[in-house]
Design goal:
It contains 9 helices and no strands. It has 215 residues and is mainly alpha-helical. It has a domain of 143 residues: Tetracycline Repressor, domain 2. Helix 5 runs antiparallel to helix 7 and helix 8 runs antiparallel to helix 9.
């Protein structure tokens, strides 16, 4: 392969192109199989330039995780209109989440698959993002329950937090499933999960929680 001729670009734009290439390679190859040579080739730069900007494969992967985590969190937050009822905010948040995962499958692979399985430092980056989203969803669930059932006692903090953990976990699994099944749209997937969650929350708030039967 001949020498790479690098266009002169501002540092921020060059770094963005490198991260774009790295997310693509990490998302499709996996962290272990991805090489700095391939990332440099996809980015259209020399490998020494990648090292100059981003130091090492580990630092590059960390930068990819942080960028994709910020983008996903921002997509969910901006997808929610605060002037709407809480249940609609919850649905809009789910729809934004699935839309982002569908539009950025390589970034989603980096966050959901690669970062979680290649070391505690990488997993901790994703955990921080997940905790932020769970806290946001916890607030929306509690508010939606109050809005829909104003005369009910309301959810305890532990109940709202537990439901948020379950909902986010289900959303993560469904996003991976939807990306593997191209016929599924973000709108359909969000509606499926919202119907499932809303029916259960309604039963809980109406005083009809599911109770296991002892045998």
């Amino acid at each position: 392969m001949g020498a790479v001729r690098t266009r002169r670009l501002p540092r921020a734009e060059r770094e963005r192109e490198m991260l774009d290439a790295a997310v693509r390679v990490f998302g499709r190859r996996g962290y272990a199989a991805a090489s700095m040579d391939e990332i440099a080739e996809v980015a259209g730069v020399s490998k020494p330039l990648v090292y100059l900007y981003l130091n090492s494969k580990e630092d590059l992967f960390t930068a990819c995780i942080r960028r994709e985590a910020r983008a996903l969190t921002e997509a969910v937050r901006t997808g929610v209109r605060r002037d709407l009822p809480a249940d609609r905010q919850l649905w809009d948040g789910l729809n934004a989440f699935f839309a982002y995962a569908a539009k950025h499958p390589d970034g989603w692979s980096v966050l959901h698959l690669q970062a979680r399985t290649h070391g505690e430092a990488f997993a901790a980056e994703v955990t921080a993002m997940r905790e932020e989203i769970v806290a946001f969803v916890t607030h929306l669930i509690a508010a939606a329950a109050r809005d829909a059932h104003p005369h009910a006692p309301g959810l305890s903090g532990a109940e709202a937090a537990g439901l948020a953990q379950a909902l986010v976990g289900a959303a993560e699994s469904l996003a991976a499933w939807a990306n593997a099944n191209p016929g599924s749209t973000a709108h359909q997937t969000a509606t499926t999960l919202m119907n499932f969650a809303w029916a259960g929350l309604g039963n809980l708030m109406d005083g009809h929680p599911w109770v296991p039967v002892r045998t």
